[in-house]
Design a protein that fits this description.
CATH architecture: Alpha-Beta Barrel
Shape: globular
Largest sheet: 5 strands, mixed
Helix content: 25-40%
Number of strands: 10
Number of helices: 6
Distance between the termini: 30 Å
CATH superfamily: Metal-dependent hydrolases
Strand order of the largest sheet: 3-2-1-9-10
Low-confidence stretches: none
CATH class: Alpha Beta
Order of helices and strands: EHEHEEEHEEHEEHEH
Strand content: 15-25%
CATH topology: TIM Barrel
């Protein structure tokens, strides 16, 4: 079977606008069967989302977008791991725990992509389309990595729920189980990126960025720390 997956989403556990439960709800409404909430340097958003998706869809893969000295890396795991900002240590810990490592928006250097270091064989694939990056950057990324080994993902990088699923990856799996999906993400022939933008989502993302700038210093994630997951 083929399933739609958006594996780069943010919630209020880092710099996103919405609570993880609304991320799950929006993903379900948009027909996504697999998601990962990849908040910055934390698995908190994903783990809270599991509470709201348990026994139903979408399947939530525990994930985080980790900022390292070489750039941003999507970490998708069977369960949360200890996060380290050292790329060398992160690679060791992730591989010891059967995680997937994907360089995020590699050619978007303004947003701390790692550039052509993303071609290194230590990664499981690369994010070739990011709906938060400009079209020129995305086209260059698609061209630069079209013959690259490993999986190629398209993701929304949504910070507001209106952007969820604007870009996604079609994954071929035999069942919608965590181990099955993670194994498929190691097979480049089982994944097919579907680029796209969502105008309303981009507008709301801009409005949210302005609100965050005006209220800089407020920690929206604090209230989530007490959540049960």
């Amino acid at each position: 079977m083929f399933v739609k997956a958006d594996l780069h989403i943010h919630s209020m556990a880092s710099d996103g606008r919405d609570h993880p439960k609304y991320v799950v709800k929006a993903a379900k409404e948009k027909g996504l069967l697999v998601i990962s909430i990849t908040d910055h340097n934390t698995f908190l958003g994903s783990m809270i989302a599991l509470n709201y998706a348990r026994g139903s869809y979408p399947l939530v893969i525990p994930g985080s977008e980790v900022r390292t000295e070489v750039g941003d890396i999507l970490v998708l795991c069977p369960e949360p791991i200890e996060i380290t900002r050292s790329s060398h240590e992160l690679i060791d810990v992730a591989h010891d725990n059967n995680c997937i490592l994907i360089p995020a928006h590699p050619l978007d250097l303004v947003r701390l992509g790692m550039g052509f270091l993303a071609r290194a064989p230590i990664w499981d694939g690369v994010e070739v389309f990011n709906a938060n990056s400009d079209p020129i950057t995305n086209v260059l990324t698609l061209i630069a990595f079209r013959n690259h080994g490993g999986v190629k993902l398209a993701n929304s990088d949504a910070h507001v729920i209106e952007m969820i699923g604007s870009a996604y990856t079609v994954i071929e799996v035999s069942s919608i189980e965590l181990d099955e999906v993670l194994n498929a993400l190691r097979n480049d022939e089982a994944t097919h990126p579907v680029p796209g933008y969502e105008v309303i989502g981009i507008v709301n993302r801009g409005a949210w960025a302005v609100r965050r700038m005006l209220s800089r210093g407020a920690n929206t994630a604090t209230g989530l720390q007490a959540a049960t997951y």
